[in-house]
Design brief:
Length: 348
């Protein structure tokens, strides 16, 4: 009997090992639902960014991505008051300055426009990407009862590249719940707020697909892509991750930056099939980059109730790259298709 038991356990261990050997490896890219209304996007167990949703007061604050880590592991964006209502800058987020005359620019007390998170619709993990799809209602809360103007299905997809770089694909599908007019606003749907050290005020730079450089070269000009890049400051990392930014009294504008050896950036891509392509990009010296609702013909974009708009944008999180490399990534992005995110309706 003494010899039989060890032999038995050896057979069990061998069988278990063989079974595991036949199993597929765990996915390299993961979208993990976390407590506290968050989804962590990870590559090989290391977080690249996090979806934050469902926070705020009576009307839950809009969903956004924060933090956003570059190849060096430093955060490249900031999120002002990212746990509170009233925030206008939330790292990577959506907003719009004029929908039926209403501003959707954060849960601001001076505006009745709210982007209200409703539900997570799907999470996927895999070898080459991870994604989260969710519903957001664009609501005028000044009405009694509050009026939903648009229902959005949004998907964030993370794809890994070499050398720690990665791509964010942003798919947004808007269905008009009422007749909607998207006005000539300088603030359109897709925005990014770079960390202070990477802003023009902090010594960073902007460039675009036309060869323009810095604020006067890129602002209010149509382009396939716009890029903000600079030197991420490791001294700001703890503050950014703790409170969303560098703190009211401890900004890093113009301060010595010990990280001059590392250049990183975020290039924003506009898809050729987006409405009003190419967008008139907006840029700010404090680090905000965004698409624009201003069009060449000056006419608002009108959407009848029940009709749908689809967009795709990209954000290429990169290291020290020439403009030609940014252009090559945009070329690949431009060949992708804008997916239909409509949820299947019940036939009952």
């Amino acid at each position: 009997m003494k010899h039989i038991l060890p032999a038995f356990f050896s057979l069990v261990l061998a069988a278990t090992t063989l079974a595991r050997a036949g199993e597929p490896p765990p996915p390299r890219m993961k979208a993990l639902l976390l407590p506290g209304d968050e989804v962590s996007f990870q590559r090989d167990g290391i977080e690249l960014t996090r979806l934050v949703f469902g926070r705020g007061g009576q009307y839950r604050a809009r969903p956004f991505l924060f933090p956003v880590f570059g190849p060096s592991g430093n955060p490249l964006t900031i999120s002002h008051a990212h746990d509170a209502e009233g925030a206008t800058h939330n790292s990577i987020w959506h907003s719009y300055g004029d929908i039926n005359g209403i501003a959707f620019e954060g849960n601001h007390p001076n505006s009745s426009g709210r982007e209200i998170f409703r539900k997570i619709e799907n999470l996927t993990s895999g070898a080459t990407s991870a994604a989260a799809t969710f519903q957001v209602d664009w609501v005028d809360v000044a009405k009694n009862p509050p009026e939903t103007l648009m229902v959005e299905h949004r998907r964030y997809t993370i794809q890994p590249f070499d050398k720690g770089e990665w791509l964010l694909l942003v798919d947004s599908q808007f269905e008009a719940a009422a007749d909607v007019s998207l006005g000539q606003s300088p603030i359109s749907f897709f925005s990014v707020k770079l960390a202070e050290a990477m802003s023009i005020n902090g010594g960073g730079h902007n460039r675009d697909s036309n060869g323009g450089a810095d604020l006067n070269g890129v602002a209010k000009k149509p382009a396939r892509w716009i890029d903000g890049y600079g030197y991420p400051n490791p001294d700001a990392k703890e503050s950014i991750l703790k409170i969303g930014n560098n703190g009211v009294n401890s900004g890093f504008y113009g301060q010595p930056n010990p990280n001059k050896a590392v250049i990183e950036g975020i290039a924003l891509f506009d898809h050729p099939k987006n409405p009003n392509y190419p967008t008139f990009w907006r840029a700010r010296t404090h680090g905000r980059l965004m698409t624009s609702g201003v069009t060449a013909d000056g006419a608002p974009l009108k959407l009848k109730k029940g009709k749908t708009l689809r967009y795709r944008w990209g954000a290429y999180i990169h290291g020290d790259q020439p403009a030609s490399a940014i252009e090559a990534q945009w070329e690949a992005f431009s060949k992708t298709e804008i997916d239909d995110l409509a949820q299947p309706r019940s036939t009952k």
